[in-house]
Structure prediction request, 749 residues.
Amino acid sequence: MGPGTYEAERVGGDFVERFKAICRMCHGGCGTVVEKVNGTVRRVLGDFSNPVNEGLLCSKAGTPSIEQLYHPDRLDRPLIRTGERGAGEWREASWDEALTLIAEKMQETKARYGAEAVAFGRGTGVNNTHIVSRLANLFGTPNVISIGYFCYGPRVAVCKVTAAGKYTGKSWDTVAVPDFYSDPQCIVEWGSQKRTSNDHGLIGHKPMTNALKKEHVNIVVDPRKPASAGRGDIWLPLRPGTDAAMALGWMRVMVDEGLYDKEFVETYCHGFEELCERLEQYPLDRVAEITWCDAEEIARAARIYATTKPGCIVWGNGTDQLGNNTFQATRSLLILMALSGNLDVPGGNVFWPAPKLDYPELWDKLPPEQDAKRLGGDRFKALNLTPYAYAHPPSLFRTMLTDEPYPVKTFIVVGNNTVTCFPNSGMIIEALKRLDFFVVQDLFMTPTAALADVVLPAAGNLERDEPRLHLHIKGPGGTFMDSVSQKVVDIGERKSDWEFVIELGRKLGLEEYFPSLDVFAENALKPMGITWDELKSQDYVKVPIEFRKYERMGFGTPTGKFEIYSTIMEEWGYDPLPDHVEPPESPVSTPERYEEYPLILNTGAKQPMYWHSQGRQLRSLRRLSPEPLVEINDETARELGIERGDYCWIETVRGRLRMKANPHKRTHPRVVSVPHGWWLPEAPAPEYGVFEVCSNVLTDDDPDNCDVALGSSPLKGLLCRVYKADPPEMKRANLPDEVPEAVAAKEPA
Prediction:
């Protein structure tokens, strides 16, 4: 395709159009070329002119994106429940009728119980963060939940408290991400699978693959060594939940042997002496005992990272989801980046620039007395940090069940499969059933939408068009300000989340605050000095990167320095230094339970063909992974009498799942791993197989076991047992026959 974002031609008797579009089959960022023939999308190809993916597409793009577009089970019109909740009895409605009903129910709830009795839920980074928060703030409720409290959000909060501070989202992007573009000589993959799952704004599969191909040093710190991690020169299969101890052990080696960046520490750090005192508690023999790793290998890894420059740490959900010590474990990795001199330098971990945008949340419109009612905000104080400021999801669901500290009666979910994506799925189902009114907007009917009163059809990839205000792409040499996908087709009555929220705001009488999407786009882009049309006419606008910004402007913290000793944590009443805190459920903290459940369970493993709970309807993807597999060490499986392909039960004190076994050598003998986001669209509604395959049936939602600062739930480091099971009665992946070319299953409207 030539220059520009659109071209068209006649080929024989066909009218062929080609569009450049950013793929949104995940967080987005890869360039594609979309080909339409006589109004129907026929091909989605990689855009070789895009410097992020260089024409390479993952398994979710291409044919699956077309299959999703025209899938016969896509929601096309609003549905209103007519039977018992979850019975699957619906009638079609117009958008006007559905929106009028939603607005009336919201106002009724507000009048009877207060605005805080209406809550909003949203999923992963699909660009709806700002518009949902705008509506919530104007309506008067502080209760917006997101999976961000245990996915990426911990890194955002840690970076804000420790380093970026007042610069967060203004001149610095929210997280220090690995700079794969500047030839890092050492890559440390710490509880992260960037080549499998990408990251919020960091596309991993091409840049990281390019970096690994150069065969510099690669260290893997993870109880499981996925194939995507590459060869791995050192593998430290630590005990789940002991990441802070491991990081403190590395720091001890760096300090004892003088391997830290003395100039950076002396000039730009606050609290180094206090850290040195804390490190006295972490000699290598104690770290080895805590982590189940060899002391000499720990020391070797620390030395290599400290001396092989530049080096980057690829961090992710491995520390996001540790429960009671998430925040400090994650903070310990950021401190490692600083001590080693690898923070904000080429090839290290870098704060990419934040585009200058006018964000639309209107935080000042939420009255202080309402802001103070945020569920969990009094206990988990990092939840109150903007630019996000979320309620605590487990606390919200418990409030739905108990009406304590006040009732929550109406729940509006935008693009989230709540039942599968938050811990303790069984309890969540019961909480949703107790609501007076429940709304879900999504692409397909899901275990969550099946329990709703109103279900709204969502526009997805290639069906929506707005400027990206969230999770901007970290490209070579700068941040890429781009659009979200491109609207190349219009099918049924699907609306984007922005269109839904704008129209709902108007129905609530807030017309002056909810102009057209185009006006929102123009206003957001004004500080950049470009128009919405100008942005759409090009692939992206590049905001150049600046390294070592702290030399010019310091850090954004209260002290103006990188806060090893966090003054904000101290003010909140939390430990201002990182420390190891034993997981609430472990061989050490609950030895009696460990006797009965002698294996350690990690949930949340990502698969390259799926994005969270999406894609299980798509035959082109289910061919690649028909059902979830439990990963277990091959020797451990042999001891349990389990062979490859056998079904087995994975059981915690909270429930059990049935999965096929995948034994291999790339996991710790005492650790098993199950994948994230599974449900079975082919299984009977309303549960859709959740209690057979969804990892969150096994996880813990108890607020007492959540992280003390942010409330992150423990999805890793749980105790379990595994034993052989009979095969399920229902065949899994029993989907309809594949439609030729994965298109035309549903003709465009």
